[in-house]
């Protein structure tokens, strides 16, 4: 009596599961054929719009610089400045006037020709109209002349070594005089790609331009796809739905890709992971307390535990791709006993301090091991996790309500910004200010030696602990070539990518 | 019946007003400054102040509140701080995506739960009935995101049947749309199906103990026939209530599932807006969610008297 009824139910269940699985036919056929002329890359930081002139953050320049917008010059993977829209340039003897000679036959994606007027328009726009605070990088420019269509003469108020490098960043982007009406939605540049489709926060589709002035890219269609979750991104790579994971935010997942099907690239970035200490007030105002921290932290252990050993120890606020890099990892050795002695001298044994930690994967991982190491020498961290960016920017960065924090300072050549008086760390920059001015206006050698001196002074002052250099951890299918190993500026250059 | 519906309508409007006040107040005390977030770590205090003025954040709260509510009444949810464009189309688009997910999930949950629950009740002393009960108990304990991860590992990474993430609108291709729909919908539906199965089972068991079923049996009907002819309609009332509550839960559960599967629904928009302190967008989305939950409740309330004459006549 009962058996037939059960059988009916079972049959119904089986039928419905068949219907469910039946639609799977052809699930994996996407991607395979279109492979050779298209590529999909996963990113974490998502652009909310396309306008980096009014919106901060790395996400927008990461997608647009060098791909859609170009500058007069660009920086290569070794940190050297190379020609871009400027074929070459002359510098006057007093090093205050730069004459740039533009490439010929350059067109914007709206069909307009690139002329010196566009450069003048763009750089004056930075000075007058930009809302992004990075505009101050153009402050040193006094006047811009356009003797002819292909020549731009830029006069500076004083010689500046940093200015030419700054042109490689987003402030150097050249816009069409008619192309800035709707920057948030429409990007018109001279670069090898144009934007075909932009879905805010989700994806950007790039299409190679056939009227590009330079060498044509090998891949016609590139999609940037944004994943909040590192596991989702690595799953998508494993199942073949994407081709590259740019800067994996969960390095422990990298191990799963150690096979012939994938390549793991661990290059450098400009991101110094700084264990910042409040120099201006609280427990770490005392230099001895900061020195104690420098001796108490085993940076190698921090790197291995928090970021699976990917990254580099640097010992200063300078990445190896900067011209004034110097290995300062030996200035502060790991010596818990010395740390204990210093803590006793400073009279702060057993003290509790406020450790504000942004809710970012690396910061949370670092805070655990750092507070454990500090507890061993007699300091107790009161960890407060703060939502990033909103709360961290508000409490720690703006109001300076912290004793210790940890953050990846990702801006290129940002040592003077981070260690200036009014920045949240509260470092007293009276010692380095003069050196900085002299270095910027001096010759290139004077620049390098001056900046070296500054980096060393800051490290010796124990102004903050430079834990490690954030790696550029890229996981990609093994048959992709041209992935930049080092990230020396904001741009993720896609023109060099190709399928083998 | 009319008083009953009028009462519900007044409650509906009052709840909306209270919700708008609460949402607005909460947004006002949320730490973090929208202008500061937009400008980042290099911003000067003057630049932050200027942007605040541009957003109207320096206006008194009452002015901002009435501006906002007034806009919503005319179908304008405001302009986003970060994108600079109207958020109404963003909300409409993302609600459609989440709507498809949630409705598909609840339908799937009902399709699984009603036969399974009824069967579990009919066969309560049989090993199969016991097994279904045990499985549904396990199902309730599994969070959505864990179900999602397991489904991805099995059906996407191992078997390669379905994509592990992504979304495609039905107009872009029906096949691609359905393929991408399966895993998120199943991960949302499994837990709800497990919960619903238990409710269906106990509702059917309750009905089977009723006098009218005994009467029907005495007149010669089999247990199953008596149940199908007289019982299921009565068993439907608690099930409708639970399904209504579940629909609201699913809207919230979708926030996580959308993150895992990278689906551009209202959950993804909400998370992004909160991170960017795009308060206008957050307020708009939360109000839409409140509105949807209230509408679901209203529909459940209206369905009661239609299903159950006793409620209809009592009111």
Q: Short summary of the structure?
A:
The complex is a heterodimer of chains A (500) and B (315). Chain A has helices at 2-22, 59-64, 116-128, 161-166, 230-238, 287-296, 299-307, 336-346, 361-376, 390-398, 415-418, 430-441, 444-460; strands at 38-43, 73-75, 81-83, 86-91, 97-102, 141-148, 151-156, 193-199, 203-208, 221-226, 244-245, 262-277, 352-358, 380-386, 404-409, 464-477, 480-481, 498-499. By secondary structure, chain A is of the alpha+beta class.
Mind sketching the topology for me?
The complex is a heterodimer of chains A (500) and B (315).
Chain A: H1 2-22, E1 38-43, H2 59-64, E2 73-75, E3 81-83, E4 86-91, E5 97-102, H3 116-128, E6 141-148, E7 151-156, H4 161-166, E8 193-199, E9 203-208, E10 221-226, H5 230-238, E11 244-245, E12 262-277, H6 287-296, H7 299-307, H8 336-346, E13 352-358, H9 361-376, E14 380-386, H10 390-398, E15 404-409, H11 415-418, H12 430-441, H13 444-460, E16 464-477, E17 480-481, E18 498-499
Parallel strand pairs in A: 1-10, 1-11, 13-14, 13-15
Antiparallel strand pairs in A: 2-3, 4-5, 5-7, 6-7, 8-9, 9-10, 11-16, 12-15, 12-16, 17-18
Chain B: H1 2-29, H2 34-39, H3 45-55, H4 61-73, H5 88-122, H6 127-141, H7 144-158, H8 174-208, H9 211-218, H10 223-261, H11 266-275, H12 279-307, H13 309-314
Helix pairs in contact in B: 1-12, 5-6, 5-8, 5-10, 6-8, 7-8, 7-10, 8-10, 9-10, 10-11, 10-12, 11-12
